[in-house]
Structure formats: structure tokens, C-alpha cells
Structure prediction request, 198 residues.
Amino acid sequence: MSANSYEKPDFWSRKAFSEGYPARSVYKLKEIDEKFGMLKKNSRILDLGAAPGSWTVFSLRTLNGTGHVTSIDLKPLAKDVKADNLTFIQGDLYDEEVRSQALEGGYYDAVICDAAPPTTGNRVIDTARSSGLVELAIFYAQTMLVQGGNFVVKIFQGGDQQKYLKQMREIFESARGFKPEACRNESFETYLVGLNKK
Ligand SMILES: C[S@@+](CC[C@H](N)C(=O)[O-])C[C@H]1O[C@@H](n2cnc3c(N)ncnc32)[C@H](O)[C@@H]1O
Prediction:
């Protein structure tokens, strides 16, 4: 798959739709999972900033009827994103009540976070808001992952990436940045990956 192919948003959106995913962002998680083996069958996965639900659907397909996915977003998931082993919490990740609901079924083997603030077009503001979400996602990972658990979080480039990687290296055996090809060339988002919680 060439990087240029990803520059044709309609093609990738149509491909996602034809494969039953509500958003093209699924191909980013697919690449991350192929490279790092983030998601395992028979595990518990927490999806932060999940709507419309393509990462949730990818996680459910990986589990193939085993394990459990808990997804959280301010907005609802797409109507057809449903499964017996899916819990959806509609709410704000910053809300303490949402955090305690997320822990009701126990700890997680993977925390995946594609949450993004609504963009203003002002890069300084957008990056600062993205950093706030990254910090929060690291807190979820630190407090809700089992030992050996994996973590991925989206960050807008320029947003204190080194500071968060340093923090993640204290929590995980390894931590690094990774920009999937599926991030369109013009996009300034990238991902931080933490593997094997200590
Ligand atoms: C890029 S979308 C996620 C796409 C999703 N991974 C998928 O594949 O369908 C980012 C999401 O983050 C959510 N979000 C941003 N801030 C949030 C917050 N404070 N609490 C909950 N969700 C939030 C937005 O509502 C939005 O749906």
C-alpha cells in the first residue's frame, strides 16, 4: 500500500465503509496492531474517544466473540456498532463518574486512545488541547491496565511528545512514537505506543 494511496480520502473512506468500518481511521490502528501486536484475543480493551467506532469494530473483530471492549465518547457510536461483549459509555473522559464506570468490569489488557479535541485551526490551541487528552489517557492507562498491558494514544505533533514518552517509559517496558502511513501526509497527528506495563 503506497503512502500516496492514503492521500485519496474518498477511496479510503469507501474502503472502510465497504469493510464495515464507520471511519477510515481504522487503518491507523490496523498498522499499529500489525507492527506492535497491541491487541490480543480473549482480552479486555478500553477504547477512549471511540466514536463513530471503527477502532471499536476492529477490536471486536480481533476478539472474535471473546473478551470485552469498553468504549467511551462524548458522541454516540454509529448505530450498527453493537455486540454482546461491548459496553459503550457516553460521556466526558475528564468526568470522574465516567472513569469509575469504565473500571466496573475490572482492569484492561489494552487502552487505545484516538481521542481528538474539536480543532480550531489555531495550531497552538489545538496542540495544547490534544496534550491535555494525552495526559488524561496516560492516567487511564496507568490506573486501569494490568501488568503487561499495552497502550496507544494519538498526539498532535509539537505537543510535548518527548515529555510524554519519558513519562510512559516509567510506566511501560518500552515506549516510542509511531506515525502510521494511514495518517494523511498533511495531518500533524502521530501516535505514542507503550508496551508491557511494568
Ligand atoms: C478522531 S475521533 C475517533 C475516531 C475513532 N477512533 C474511530 O475509529 O471511529 C475523536 C473522538 O474523540 C472524542 N473526544 C474528544 N474529546 C473527548 C472527551 N473529553 N471525552 C470523550 N470523547 C472525546 C470526540 O468526540 C471524537 O469522537
